[in-house]
Structures
1.
Amino acid sequence: MQRTLSGIFAVACLVAFTGLFGCGHETDESGEQTVRLTYSVFFPPTHIQCQMAEQWAEEIKHRTDGSVDITIYPAGTLSAADQCYSGVVSGISDIGMSCFAYTRGRFPLLEGIDLPLGYPNGLSATQIATKIAREFEPEELKDVKLLYIHAHGPGILASKQPVNSLEDMEGLQVRATGLSAKIVQNLGGVPVAMSQPETYEALQRGVVSATFCPVETLEGWKQGEVIDSITDTSVIGYTTSMFVVMNKASWNRLNEEQQRIIEEVSDEWIDKHGRAWDQADDSAMEFIRELNREVISLSSEEEQRWKDAVQPILQEYVTNTEQRGLPGKDFLDRLLELIEEHKTTVQ
């Protein structure tokens, strides 16, 4: 009897585990199977990008007549931001959204997307990131099904003192992490690594005098309250690209119609995510104006100096990728070509 009860308990645990952490199936009264999928999102539920993910899931459920039901796990509750991708590969979640940059070195070719290339806005960055990943089909994504990529608008410099030229960057302590730390160094500043939640107090107390960030951060994290000016450095505007990927086994369990619908909705959500980033940037700029913060535009000559200063970062990327047998130069050239095309459209 004890052995029987133990066996029943083990089976119950296995069923519960499968329902929570992997692709599961249920059959409704009509006999049609419902595929239940888990989706790990690193954004908190209040963030517009998490809300976009929820709308994406709802649209898929609607178009599949409920045969695909996706449950969102926001704020890294199912897998931490830096473990989201590996969590999809291993099946902890069926779908995942996080940043390529959170696992530096795992995506050597795709890291080129985040370079300081002068993205004009979030919509362009999102469209370009998805397009180039689909064109190159990098080996580093072979263990998942790529649905799409989205990316924020150009990173700018927000500071407690006006920055009008490269000379003003000399020795300036700037909150920056990952790639943006290299940008700060090449511009003559001193990068100080810290998370976004720490940045407000660091600026307020003078631990740092500036931060590199997308404009939306100044409102979303209220950092506009503790800076005095922003410098439009969009000429070297970097982005942070964010993947939406699916476990291959979970993808293969779907029928052809379900797969077609997910791809169809994903294609539509590329622009929706990009526009959401731009709307957040526009709202943040209005927030900055209400606070009467100074907005500094660089002269064309000064812009060229900043572009020249970050050029070694681009060269380093090409060298590192080519040494690994990856088409880094072709990838970067294509990125720059696409950015120029989008700048013409935006203007």
2.
Amino acid sequence: MSELSTIEIAGLHKSFGALEVLRGIDLAVEPGEVVCVIGPSGSGKSTLLRCVNLLEEPSSGTIHVAGVDVTDPDCDIDAVRRRIGMVFQQFNLFGHLTVRENVTIAQRRVLKRGRAEAARIATENLERVGLVDKAAAYPAQLSGGQQQRAAIARALAMDPELMLFDEPTSALDPELVGEVLAVMRGLAAEGMTMLVVTHEMAFAREVASRVVFMDGGVIVEQGPPEQVFGAPREARTREFLHRVLEPTRVSEAEIRGDDV
């Protein structure tokens, strides 16, 4: 693995009681890479992501983020987390604060930015996600897609070196998914380093630098999207992709009125 890796994971295991969820993960994410992690439910994808910033504590193994061993007991994890943006399935916005206040509060409390600077940076990032016109609105006044975009703006306002996305579209109605993925495409185009757990196969195929397929707590296969989707080496990868892609193909054909 490269010394320049933004994330470097070696021998990662995670158990919850007798249940071993991660069974020896080795993975590196290089600066500017977009790595999409796919796989069936229960394969350990979200647990892997949550271990990166110690929302879940690994049972064994090491994780380096920007050269810092976050599994070292002496690590200042709060300092590391300030370098990592994380976007969850749920938006976790403060309902009693406006969108602008949601994007400024951590800047002021954690980064100690002044009110004017935090407001300026909030505006810049709300513009990045297409929400500057909703700055004075409250979360309950937004659609799910708008709330998720606000959550992304909040993470970006902290100037992260790395963005983690844990199935950011899974709680959204289908018609709202595209607006969130468009923001993520924009971040990828800007060169943001991203580790994305997703079930959006078209996004992974289009945007990922590398696709990682997980099943049963291990990495079964990884490679460029054209290889993983177009010519998967492992039978388990082929089986998974057949199951998740074939219904989409059928439904698209039915919409066009094709014979299926």
3.
Amino acid sequence: MPADPGPFLAPGLAWSLVVVFSVLWVALGVSWGARGQGDADDYMLAGRNIGLALSTATLMASWVTGNTTLLAPEFGYKNGLWGMFSYALAGLGLILFAPLALRIKQLMPQGRTSGDFIRLRYGRLAWSVFMVITAIYTLGFLMTQAMGAGLLLQALSGFDYHVGMVVVIGVATLYTLFGGMRAVIGTDFIQSLLIMVLLAVVAVLAFRTYPVPELHAALLTRHPERLDLLLPAGLLIAWNSALFSMGEVFHNNIWWSRVFASRRTVVVASFVLGGLAWMSVPLVTGSIGLVALARDLPLAQVNMVFPVMAADLLGAGGAALVFVVVFASLTSTLDSLLASTADLLAEDVYFRLLRPQASDDQLKQAARLMVVGLAVVTLALSWPRLDSLRSVLFFTGALVASTVWPVACGLYWRSANRSAAVLAMLSGSVVGLIAYVAIADYCAAVFSAAISAVVMVVGSRYWPERFDFVLLQEEA
């Protein structure tokens, strides 16, 4: 195995980039937030008036994590075409949610959270189960992003693990706290442009250096199995990736908050375009992994395919480029998680459950306190390192995939049964976790979604209810 080359970026340059982008994100966040010092809707949902460009950009940027830019090249390098395409299928979650997003806008014009829908549609018991699933998923996702920040910045620049984690979480927390959803969406727009442009630069240089015909010939000669898209394991992982992403998107308040924040006329297009834009990222970075494989590029760590390729093509400039992409990816995901989860806790727990008499200003302040509280909890949980971030994500996949059918059926079927919804989420989660332990971690979401679908459909078919969709139009 090749020796570890050490950090890709000199610490001095890395600190300069951190300072520049930290100051930029915080300044922009505070500035955008200052433009809308209105009610809770303004802070939590940016006034419900986001247009197509901003809506598409924030969806894409929120879905691009540090994993997308570093794990997708590893998938391409280790597994070839099916690894690259199976990772890209996670974008289907956004695309398939597009028609549901329009339905949500029609049924809940004053809605604020995904929890609002579950509570009004299925009752408190279903809401309680849903909130437990959401809490486990959100904490798991926050932990993977926080630990990813520490690990990635350490690998790229030699930062101490804890320093990198604190810097990234601190920056995302600051501009989210002061600017709310306006700050999140505004910074996401710039971050998405940075990610797309910089990835395109690396991809163009990679394929100019190693053209596609040469790449195909080299892979066909030395790694023909990496060109097979029909491997059974690959197909199973592809299905798991698609269903996992559907569970993440259908249930998570990140995406519901984007629905409520966007104009009704753009919501479908923004989810479709956001999903397609996101799918281009793992396809591009995964193809860079294929180039590294064809060139037999020596790697000390396989998850560092993208930094190694960028440094090989651009030298120190390539390392700086990767650092900026990773920093933007991490902050764009963390800000969305912090903002949407804080809104969910403030609306569903503080306002609807604990203090229904709270004023609009008190709700807004509660959301701000939740942002800070979530950041502190995330740091505490992420301080000790875990061996595998993938295991945490796939564990949550067993839970969130169980929510796909209760959400989809509840939006379209008057007959969707509330008891079936509770049982679908519980049984899907249990069976998914059993599959996670007994078969393979990448099977969890497939089994969870399948069991949940059967329970939801059978329960609603044989014990139908007659729900009045007007009941979803609760005043905010």
4.
Amino acid sequence: MPRIGLALGGGGVRGLAHIAVLELLDELELRPAVIAGTSMGALVGALYASGHSGTAIREITHRHFISRDDSLRDVLDKKSELLTWLNAFLPATARGGLFRNDRFLAHVFGGVLADRFEDLAIPLVVVAADFWSGEEVAIKSGALLPALRATSAVPGVYAPVEREGRILVDGGLVNQVPYDHLGADCDLTIAVDTGQERVPGGKHGAPNVLQAVVGALDIMQDSALEQRLRRARPDILVRMRIRDVDLLEYAKAGEVMKQAQPAIAELRARLAAETP
């Protein structure tokens, strides 16, 4: 069996599309030897690396988010989980963001079955950015939760995280899809980009403040990724373009999964060719 390296990119709720990739790997009995992740990709990757299957991760996220397809009974069944959101989104007391994402992570990703990187079943690399130096910071050891907080600390939305004397923010600022951290000993590298498809006109006129900030980040991240791809490419690049889903629209998690299916079909074909 080939030694597979899997890189999962950021993208807020769009990053939940990574779950479909993990479900496909489980179905094909292809277990990654190493995972590298940025922002939501790191969060999903941590759940998987700690021992959850792709299907189990889908169930975890389904319990915590209201989908447009949910019935009234579904919503009522999630009542206790949803009440916890009130605490998860209390305003930040630290400078640099509207909210503290530690409560959010503890609530939604409390199912991570490890406290430290060393306890994970699959080696994991989490990418964050040093706010003051602009340097990329790859975290591979130590406490897991602070690293996950750091990689998903979207500037202006979630407060930065101090770790080992550095102020860390969202890793997507420096490396949106960190396939270059998978190591040279992988036989097959798979990188998954869950970007946004921006559509002008109609209701997509002038963006609101949050859309403008996040949209600008998306544009910069896409540009930086293109430059990185010109220098070196993964063996398989999965590019999902999720339409009409903003960074924090968790009510559209089901829509994200639906839009991921064409890319999953393409990945299935590529894996059939690469891993006979």
